[in-house]
Structures
1.
Amino acid sequence: MDTLLLQPVGARERARAVEHAAVCLRQGGVVAFPTETVYGLGANIFSERALHAVFRVKGRPPDNPLIVHVATPDQASELTEAIPPRAHALMEKFWPGPLTLVLRRNALVPDVVTAALDTVALRMPAHPLALALIRAAGVPLAAPSANRSGNPSPTDAAHVIAQLAGRIDVILDGGPCRVGIESTVLDLAASRPRILRPGGVTREQLEDTLRCHVAAARGGTLRPASPGMKYRHYAPAHPLLLLLPRRDEDDAQFRIRFSAMVQRQRLRGLRVGVLAPRAWKSGIDCDAFFSLESGTPADLARVMYRGLHAFDDAGVDVLCCPGVREEGGMADAVMNRLRKAASSVIR
Ligand code: TXA
Ligand code: MG
């Protein structure tokens, strides 16, 4: 299949590119498009052919449901039984933005989208091209991240091209993603709100708006509340060793311990890539270094996947990355992704 790459410059070209991609979606095509979190692989939720193509192209297990992307809260309410007051408050505060709400669905939503669950995950993305595309398509778009299942999510059109060119109809380039990791998924279908996947909107922010306790879900249960939680995710092509900071050590000690871990790998004859904050570079002897900028949780979120992709062609045998010391907020979301990407987590 020929994949059409649209890289619009300026308002006129953007409008034309969006219209072109929207026609493709209406006709049952599959289009990768930018959002503020990561690139999505979009399909018209009313096209069974397009939905099946999304699962096939990603190599995604059919029991892992898709997030439905809408252009307005009203479009979301057309797919649900009722919007509970809690959801209204969150939509008002965080939409458009990196928050996905799981609500009871109605019969309009096809089973393929929700893996036959009685709930649907809804999100209004905050990227102008994404919103324009959903509006122009005139239908909600089911869109998982635009990567092959198990690989790191794409935060740049180049990542999508590398993984999916030749397999999908259109790639709409909107530049690098601002947030860099996927949306927070919040379950509002149960009696108590519960985070199924930490992300761009933090638990503290949710609790502030809801004025109640928001639970963080754990993986590994027999029947995961969010089917995606049971699969290994976001993994780079090479083994990733994640070293966790200890409570009783300061930053300097942590850096020494990390540097020693890198040395051990090199002494084994391996070529070692390191992902770490910029300031760590001088003290570390490695074969390739990717800077996680100043290392604040927001920086890490924005560039982490870019770092994992960068090593795919770097000719290294193993990646080493230090964990984040902070807790809560974006730090939790970043550590959630790093743990899933890691082949070993070392204390
Ligand atoms: O930021 C994002 O959310 C990106 C962009 C493209 O919008 N999308 C994304 O989609 O990350 P995906 O398919 O990679 O992740 C969707 C997650 C999965 O963990 C899935 O199990 C969960 O949402 N999910 C979808 N529908 C659900 C439902 N009805 N109940 C519980 N979890 C659901
Ligand atoms: Mg994904």
2.
Amino acid sequence: MKIKFFGHSTFLIETGSTKLLFDPFISGNPKIEDKNISDILPDYILASHGHSDHIADIEEIAKQSSATLISNYEITSWYGNKGITGHPLNHGGKASFEFGTVKYVNAIHTSALPDGSNGGNPGGFVIWNDEGCFYFAGDTGLTMDMKLIPMTCPKLDFAILPIGDNFTMGYEDAVIAADFIECNKIIGCHYDTFGYIEIDKQAAIKTFADRGKELILIDSGSTIEI
Ligand code: NI
Ligand code: MN
């Protein structure tokens, strides 16, 4: 799978011929120089929760690409009122799409939408197909529920975890999360975007390496392949 990082928690993952865009927050990201989103044309947009640093660019990108939004029921309904096609999920449920299976899993966080509407409860996604299986955690603290992922999903090839602390788990807890989900290849996100979540990146990488795990920090705008 090809994984492009736009900064914060925004990733474009290409699997087969399908493009999946996660938590689009580009035009308002103070750390991104190239804020142009007019050429981003995903097939699906996946939103972990209702906070604006995860959904700010959904409306524009969904309208220009006709992408289908996959999120919880409350968020897909809120965007449905804006004319965007959605597929609603709720915790513990999975659904099959032409690109693979998506399961909506627990996250410990909050999820109010920008206008104060109820954004449901926040979640993460586990996605699998013939190419592999990965976990996009969204914003979450460390939770014992992560232990359910290896019990209920195929073996993870990689996982995208928040490591910036303050609003989510920090990298010290993310190492424990990697143990819970039985995955040694972790891509970090949700760090350095604002003052509250600035981290020592070398210390984070070392914390993972000391536990026999790999922490991958992708430069904003770069693509890797796993
Ligand atoms: Ni959040
Ligand atoms: Mn966030």
